[in-house]
């Protein structure tokens, strides 16, 4: 019993750490003067290399027979992951980190609304209410002025919502993957993302890695190795030991940290209505999980 409690406590701490680290991602992304597609590619490459080293050190084998069965879905989910990163990184360039991140966290509610369509799951009144209130939260984050007048903030928030749609696609596609689980699945999705992003980057501006300064290289290595490779390992290690509900609720540490970073570290403004909008999105998403 005590051993189980220790494992759960350790897993909870791993998830809290990983979500906190995820919340600081935008600070380092803004320090990398690369197009979003190219940045997403290098993030996937560095993370895949680190996880490969982890596999080799632990003598972990990936069953090729299972990979063949799931190949099409893995490719689709990897492509969705790559597009998700591109849109999120672009969102950071157009609007505040808090607005982009809070818009991005509409993804769980999008999943809730799409599951009845794709998996014939029942949609409850509570879930409909959560979707409506989270949507109201997004409207408050955008603001009436941006809705009517446009501008960079609106573009950034729409990019964040686009990233949320592709993140929701990753979650839904993962429900179809039965034979590959945990960190192996993520490693294969990174490889799929790399396969999709290489031609995308080649056709949309090419490669500029040699132009990076020392500070740019440092930020890129932190994003690829630490924010993605190490943190994903912690994340999936924690998921094995925690109930889905607890893991889902703790995942909202990420946007909370991102908002704090946005205001206190980056000095970005946030209005009272945006705070209320963020509370609506996160609050009703958590209630939906409960």
Provide keyphrases for this structure.
transmembrane helix, mainly alpha, transmembrane, membrane, EmrE-like, globular, 81% helix, 290 residues
Describe what this molecule looks like in 3D.
The chain is mainly α. It has one domain (2-289). It contains 14 helices and no strands. The chain has helices at residues 2-23, 25-29, 36-58, 64-94, 97-104, 107-119, 125-142, 144-149, 152-174, 182-203, 214-239, 244-250, 253-265, 272-289. α1 packs antiparallel against α11, α3 packs across α11 and α4 (64-94) runs antiparallel to α9. The longest helix has 31 residues, at 64-94. It is globular.
> Strand percentage, roughly?
under 5%
Rg over CA atoms: 19 Å
H/E element sequence: HHHHHHHHHHHHHH
Taking the alpha carbons of the first and last residues, their distance comes to 25 Å
Count the DSSP helices: 14
Compute the number of strand runs. Answer: 0
Number of discrete domains: 1
Q: Biggest sheet: strands, sense, closure?
A: none
Mean pLDDT: 82
Q: Which stretches are poorly predicted, pLDDT < 50 over at least 5 residues?
A: none
The backbone outline, from C-alpha atoms, is globular
């Amino acid at each position: 019993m005590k051993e189980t409690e220790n494992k759960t406590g350790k897993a909870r701490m791993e998830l809290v750490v990983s979500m906190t680290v995820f919340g600081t991602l935008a600070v380092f992304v803004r320090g990398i003067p690369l197009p979003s597609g190219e940045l997403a590619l290098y993030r996937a490459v560095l993370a895949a290399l680190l996880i490969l080293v982890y596999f080799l050190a632990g003598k972990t084998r990936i069953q090729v027979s299972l990979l063949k069965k799931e190949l099409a879905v893995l490719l689709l989910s990897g492509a969705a992951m790559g597009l998700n990163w591109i849109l999120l990184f672009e969102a950071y360039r157009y609007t505040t980190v808090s607005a982009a991140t809070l818009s991005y966290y509409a993804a769980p509610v999008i999943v809730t609304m799409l599951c009845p369509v794709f998996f014939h799951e029942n949609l409850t009144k509570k879930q409909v209410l959560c979707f409506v209130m989270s949507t109201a939260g997004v409207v408050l984050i955008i603001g009436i002025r941006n809705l009517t007048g446009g501008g960079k903030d609106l573009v950034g928030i729409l990019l964040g919502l686009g990233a949320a749609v592709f993140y929701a696609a990753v979650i839904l596609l993962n429900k179809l993957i039965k034979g590959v689980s945990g960190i192996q699945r993520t490693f294969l999705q990174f490889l799929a993302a790399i396969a999709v992003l290489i031609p995308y980057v080649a056709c949309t501006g090419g490669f500029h890695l040699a132009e990076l300064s020392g500070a740019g290289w440092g930020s890129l290595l932190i994003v690829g190795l630490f924010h993605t490779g190490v943190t994903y390992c912690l994340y999936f290690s924690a998921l094995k030991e925690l109930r889905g509900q607890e893991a889902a609720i703790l995942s909202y540490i990420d946007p909370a940290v991102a908002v704090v970073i946005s205001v206190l570290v980056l000095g970005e403004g946030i209005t009272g209505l945006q705070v209320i909008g963020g509370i609506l999105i996160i609050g009703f998403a958590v209630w939906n999980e409960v």
